[in-house]
Amino acid sequence: MSAPVISVGRVVRGFTQAIGNTPLIRLNRLSEETGCEILGKAEFMNPGGSVKDRAALYVVQDAERRGLLKPGGTVVEGTAGNTGIGLAHVCRAKGYKCVIYMPNTQSKEKIDLLRMLGADVRPVPAVPFTDPANYNHQAREFAATLDNAVWTNQFDNTANRQAHIETTGPEIWAQTQGRLDAFTCATGTGGTLAGTARALKDASGGRVKVFLADPPGSVLYALKKTGALERTGAGSITEGIGQGRLTDNLAPDFELLDDAVHVPDEASIEMVYRLLDEEGLFVGASSALNVAAAVQVAKILGPGKTIATIICDGAYRYQSRLFSKAWLESKGLLSAIPAHLQRYVSL
Ligand code: PMP
């Protein structure tokens, strides 16, 4: 047995400094299968458990810098969950109150966790952005009624993408030592995709190809392919993913994206189970979507390429859905799980 490789930094000061610097994991079986190096950035290893810890820290620091948030203040956000969880942690670590508006379609695990982290959680009906009752508008309006409060506005606040320009992208570039050929990931706010793409394009002189990954129900795939703002498919099981518009985080770099891949839910759910069975990784559906997209990119580019993607969070946040027979059946997805992986459907 070879000696363990010790690769650790120094002591970090508190929760916020523990965000980032996550491992980049070679997905061994998928790499062998495709003839490419398929690499997953292990964002579930952030201290709040998801890629959104990075954006949460940046939007709070941005509000502090702009004088919008002073000691004892309140952070208000509209979020499908992970940004809220990141914010709830960052707020506890920095002494702020945290109020979260979220669509009532999200998993119980995320709502319970937010409440355990001390956030004031307000589930509201899931209506489109164009409806004034949308969770984002409710968050903005509530923040405006308070003193010393900020609506962090993750969708259009570009401090979100800045987190990935300054951290995620440079980390992936350093970890691949300049050998990266492509990057792909899906979008919620678009911060991760746009920020990481910008950093990787800049670092590589434009050489790294970037592919948008999009689930059913989102408009971005069609927008990239045809320029038309139209939905591809009805809706998706991938919580926190899919967009109906170009956010301010994504818009500046949408042209920078080389191409787009569409990932149906069947492919995402199969990948949830494959990653568990083959790699020992227990990940959520957006991570699986991203990895399925990386496999598509490998097929497009051909063997010998190095392709990175994001493993956004763990499956713990969705286990009552993703591992439940009744839930999978209700979505028509039970049959998308290959027979030899059905034994993992255990709830
Ligand atoms: N995966 C999960 C599980 C998420 O919650 C989110 C954010 N909603 C994303 C991916 C997308 O990240 P971004 O907002 O940076 O596009």
What would you say this structure looks like, in words?
40% of the residues lie in helices and 14% in strands. It is built from 13 helices and 10 strands. It has helices at residues 14-17, 28-34, 52-65, 82-94, 108-116, 135-144, 159-176, 191-204, 220-226, 265-279, 285-301, 319-322, 325-330, and strands at 24-26, 37-42, 74-78, 97-103, 120-124, 149-151, 182-186, 209-214, 259-262, 306-311. The chain has a 6-stranded mixed sheet with strand order 1-2-10-7-8-9, with helices on both faces. It has a 4-stranded parallel sheet with strand order 5-4-3-6, with helices on both faces. The protein is globular and about 55 Å long. Bound molecules: 4'-deoxy-4'-aminopyridoxal-5'-phosphate.
SS class: alpha/beta
The percentage helix is 25-40%
Q: Which stretches are low in confidence, meaning pLDDT under 50 for 5 or more residues running?
A: none
Order of neighbouring strands in the sheet with most strands: 1-2-10-7-8-9
CA gyration radius, whole angstroms: 19 Å
Please, how many helices? 13
Number of strands: 10
* Major pleated sheet: 6 strands, mixed
The sequence of SSEs as H and E is HEHEHEHEHEHEHEHEHEHHEHH
Report the portion of residues in β strands.
5-15%
Mean of residue pLDDT? 96
Give the overall form. Answer: globular
Question: What is the first-to-last residue Cα distance?
Answer: 38 Å
Identify the bound ligands. 4'-deoxy-4'-aminopyridoxal-5'-phosphate
Organism: Polyrhizophydium stewartii
Enzyme class: transferase
Keywords: Transferase
InterPro entries: Cys_Synth/Cystath_Beta-Synth (IPR050214), P-phosphate_BS (IPR001216), TrpB-like_PALP (IPR001926), TrpB-like_PALP_sf (IPR036052)
